[in-house]
Write a structure and sequence with these properties.
The complex is a heterodimer of chains A (369) and B (390).
Chain A (H helix, E strand, L loop, with lengths): L1 H19 L17 E2 L6 E5 H15 L4 E4 L14 H5 L4 E3 L4 H13 L4 E4 L10 H8 L2 H4 L9 E7 L14 H5 L5 E3 L4 H13 L4 E6 L7 E5 L3 E2 L6 E4 L4 E5 L3 H14 L4 E5 L2 E3 L3 H11 L2 E8 L4 H12 L9 E5 L9 H4 L3 H13 L1
Parallel strand pairs in A: 3-4, 3-5, 5-6, 6-8, 7-8, 12-13, 12-15, 15-16
Antiparallel strand pairs in A: 1-10, 2-9, 7-14, 11-13
Chain B lengths: L2 H5 L39 H26 L13 H10 L5 E3 L5 H7 L3 H9 L32 H14 L6 E6 L6 H12 L4 E7 L2 E2 L2 E2 H4 L8 H5 L2 E6 L3 H18 L3 E6 L18 H11 L1 H11 L5 H24 L18 H16 L9
Parallel strand pairs in B: 1-2, 2-3, 3-7, 6-7
Antiparallel strand pairs in B: 4-5
Helix pairs in contact in B: 2-3, 2-4, 2-12, 2-13, 3-4, 3-10, 5-13, 6-7
Classes of the chains: A alpha/beta (369), B alpha/beta (390).
Chain lengths: 369, 390
Amino acid sequence: MRAFRSFYQNLEQQKRKKCMKFCSLNAPHTSYTAATMVKTETDNRTEKMNMVTAINDALRIALSADPTSIVFGEDVAFGGVFRCTMGLKHEFGSDRVFNFPLCEQGIVGFAIGYAAVGHTAIAEIQFADYIFPAFDQIVSEAAKYRYRSGGEFSCGKLTVRAPYGAVGHGGHYHSQSPEAYFSHTPGLKVVMPRDPIKAKGLLLASIRDDNPVIFLEPKAFYRATVAEVPLGDYIEPLERAEIVRRGNDVTIVGWGAQVKLLEKACDMANKIGISCELIDLQTILPWDARTIEQSVRKTGRLVVSHEAPKTSGFAAEIAATIQERCFLSLEAPIQRICGYDAPFPLIFEKHYLPDTLKIFEAIKKTMQF
Amino acid sequence: MLSWIKRSKSIPKQLILQRTILHSQLVTILNVDGEMVDSMSKPAMKQSAILQSYQKMICMKIMDSILYDAQRQGRISFYMTSYGEEAVSFGTAAALDAKDMVFAQYREPGVLMWRGFQYQDFADQCFGNIDGHGKGRQMPVHYGSKALNYHTISSPLATQIPHAVGAAYAFKLSKEKRIAVCYLGEGAASEGDFHAGLNAAATRDCPVLFVVRNNGYAISTPRKDQYRGDGIAPRGIGYGISFTRVDGNDLLAVYEATKRAREFSLQNNKPVILELMCYRTGHHSTSDDSTRYRPVDEISDFKECFDPLLRVKRYLIKHELWSEEQDVVLKDTERLNMLKALQIAERKRKPGLDTMFEDIYDKKPALIAEQEQEMWEHIAKYPEEYTIES
């Protein structure tokens, strides 16, 4: 297994150049806090991994630990179009790691049935943009399976992974962030990691969680972020936001790939004397309102940012809830820095995205109010 | 070289169109008079099982008529009968193993009845009382039972088809000697999930049996507006799935076809389509008046000529396994039993209001607990306005 890991890592080195074409971001090593991490093994070793290898490692651990678990989707058998399932078919066999016919509603429907008889299904939707054909299965079936049967049946052992978000040149259908659609559905969990360490820990937690989970992976970070990822089996708890940086003047909330931009904006703000508290929401549903509430009570100001369009984006939910809970603490209107209410554009991506400068301006605006 | 390239020829001047209609054979064992079509053969279904199925078919029909009337009286909110399709439920159920996992549409409660669901269980679900499956959360007729291997019904059509395939795949991998059985109507077969499920079942070699109840109508839509091919079963050719078409009013034929299909599916890890041709003699549901879109004679003709109960009854009487007197006694007794279950279900209390917030997740998230608290505080202010109907 170890030999195999180095084999495909070498392979990746060779292909990195090619892959960078697909990833617009070339970010340095991610800083992280491992305070929330729950280790289930006493392996303290770490290894440099990007998000692809971290996810691959999580899937390998999940497949090893649970003999009923299967990994499947479109083009998964040869390693996946993003290489997240590299080597898994070879290691676990074509019954457990396999290609599914090109049909998203089938992938999720099949996974629900597999999970509903108590086995672990890890399904992949090739791009989050193509999860909508499975919307009915996710919203009407997976989310309500336990509730409608009075708790007799459940498809809790279901996890749907999908790459999401801007990638530089993804246009309409290789760039979307659909988390808000799912956030309106009781019964689902929606999880979005920001770096390789979180990706592995949150994915393992999602696979083992007894509820259907939509796990959205920031594809721009698949190869662009690298971190020292623990080699062992560990989980990062779901439903918990993480305070990435402490600060006193303004609370900044984001998730997934957006956290990286928020960090940069925080640095810029710091240079002009504004102390930002940065929170990675991590789980979009059910979300951790309390952590944000406590932060805003302290700072009195809130900026929420996501790539998805502004209207009815998840920032709206956060803004409304925090306004209800922290009305007397708020010293400025809550700022939402989001994608515009347009389909994700190709040539204007740079102008469309809620980038560091837009966030920086929002931080200044909220301070000057 | 690929085999299809080897076989290909240059395109002739006139494009040759393949035949589109197969007119698959319809398998019948008992004719309308209750006689064996092939008098030389012996039915696979044991006489005791035939008798038992017939008795259950009577029970089903009685339950349907009482619960249908209960809805008309406003005692339950909704109901769907299985009139005309009793042989589909009991013929298949009798041929399956009790551990075969059922994923049904909604017009197959007979399968549950065969497996041991009682009048009381049905009535409790329809009333949404404390003992009903699903804690009163779903509409009537959305039955389910973990103990009886029958997944909870949901309203969205055809969603259960890929579920059954996934479950069958799980059984195959864990080498459990059981199959998944998926029931659907011919209308549901037009949904995308039908295509998704069948193609997946074929490519993953899943031991799953698709039982298609082709009853002529999807609410008001007749077959001719639903498809233009030769029904549902021959679609199996396109997917590489074996299929058979059976007279769905003929209990013996349904039983035998199901039995053979199950064996084939289990032994070969392959899906099978079983299309059962029948007629929906009842309305689509209590929210439907079917005489607005189909002639009354058509309904009465089918009731007279193709009634699945009548056919079995004639067979049983011919073989002196049953009599008209026994028939009357059974109907009277079961009517009383069902009415009693209805009255008991009606008097049972509803599940506690706190259950509205349970089972959304395995554990209650903080935000949902807060909403529950808000509800309790509100109700405490206006207790008379929020009494739960019993």
